[in-house]
Amino acid sequence: MLLRSLAFLSTLLGTVAFCNLGRHVLSSSPSTTTSLNSVPSLIVFDLDNTLWTPELYQLRKLARNNQYPVANQDVKLFPAAREMIMKMKQDDMFANTKFAVASRTKSVDWAHDLLNQFELREWLDFIEIFPGDKKEHFNNLKRNSGISFDQMLFFDDARDGKYGNCEPVSSLGVLSVHCPNGIYEQQIWMNALAKYKDWSVQKAPGTIVEWDGSVTTKKPLDPNERFKGNVKYLNREKRFGFIQYGGRGTRDMFFHFNELPYGDSIDEGDELTFTVTTSRNGKDAASNIEMATQGGANESDDLVSMHAFSMNLPFAALLSNGYKTLETRNGTMFTPYPSGTKMLLHVGQRIYPDGDRHIDVMRSGGLGDNEIKALKSLPSGFGKGQCVAIVEIGRTFETTLEQRSEADFQRSVAAFGADAGMRATEIRRVEYLKKPLKVSARGGVFKVKIEKNLIPYGWLDDEDSNNSDSSDKKTRKVYYSATF
């Protein structure tokens, strides 16, 4: 026991001597000025899984019971984070450094309460806790502190992708430290300070101290590099949207309608090319947007761009074969499109699991099993993953359950009233394509480039197209096409 006490005392004295030595060096060494200048003016910490654990959204039981988490019981500081905070509070090295937290948690009240419980609030100079974009946190910090981005150091457990923070913050010019397991050991923040000293010479934007201690710097944004993606979302009223591009980890790119080509209209699913610029608020946005083209200079002569939507079997076949004259959805997919709009019908990869209730609906109209089987079948060579038919839609209108439960309505939809969607769209006419077109479908209404010679006669606005010769009109093969 005596030996253990002596060993502990020796360690403690050594630590005190090291701290005192460090302070002595800082106050007397010629290199002190360089050392102090290489200390960040503002050090910023994420909260969940960076300073403390677990992440607050995981405390679902407390949320259900309307209870606040208790510090050191429900939520705990990482031991190395606690040690780091004590060091930064006491060491003269950080006398001119300010401290902040920046968190996107939705548990805002909990986070503020925990800062009080852990007695961290008095240590912090700035607090940014609200859901949204981490760049907004840092723009606030820059404005409120008067400290430039290149004098900041940031710790966060999320690097990149949809929920990443290190990458977008580093693009502002802040040296960011990726600590995926939180500040769980002393080496993380000590290494970060050393890397900041090296980095502060050049201060390259896009620099991240990785989890293994290495440093990576993203190449500067090339304002001339063009990207390609598809319109994922549009808000026509507020005149903005988002483009889906790149891999799964790439964030959707914001754009404003002012960046669209003059006179061009776009829809969800349209393919665009664009450059990326940084807006005044520090966020990336698409610029110099152009409609993507395929197939070279003669594209307009051979191809036409059409809207398309996807349905699963058997309902895709029932519509293509003329039985299904109403398509119902709970969403507003068809609402933006006026009566007379022509679309391609794509067959999805699944069989819709309605428990064969559509068969009971069809039998109620007097159809036999062989007729039902024929209406549920696609022609030979037509199948899943293909655009198989062209459709002209009529009006889209809202319905009540009582209306949807009427026998004629149910047979038009091929579904019982309780199974049908609240918004009904008329199918005015439909006809099979001359040949199916293999297409990778997307959700909602999307755009497809199709060869004009695959479209039956009478469907294109240009009746003098490749489909308009009289021999084709006489010999074309139509399966269960119908006009309503």
Rounded average pLDDT:
83
Our Rg estimate from Cα atoms comes to 32 Å
The strand order across the widest sheet is 5-4-1-6-7-8-9
The tally of strands reads: 21
Unreliable stretches covering 5 or more consecutive residues: 1-36, 294-299, 463-484
Shape: elongated
Give the class from helix and strand content and strand pairing. alpha/beta
- The percent range for strand residues is 25-35%
Biggest sheet layout: 7 strands, mixed
Task: Summarize the structure in words.
- By secondary structure, the chain is α/β, with parallel strands linked by helices.
- Helix content is 27%, strand content 27%.
- The chain has 15 helices and 21 strands.
- It has helices spanning 2-28, 32-37, 60-64, 79-90, 108-117, 134-145, 166-170, 186-199, 299-302, 315-320, 357-364, 369-375, 401-404, 407-413, 470-475, and strands at residues 42-45, 52-53, 76-77, 98-103, 126-129, 152-156, 175-178, 207-209, 215-217, 227-235, 240-245, 253-256, 271-278, 284-291, 303-313, 326-329, 342-351, 386-398, 423-438, 446-451, 482-483.
- Strands 5-4-1-6-7-8-9 form a seven-stranded mixed beta sheet, sandwiched between helices. Strands 15, 16, 17, 18, 19, 20 and 21 form a seven-stranded mixed beta sheet that branches.
- Helix 5 (108-117) links the parallel strand 4 (98-103) and strand 5 (126-129).
- The model is unreliable at 1-36, 294-299 and 463-484 (pLDDT under 50).
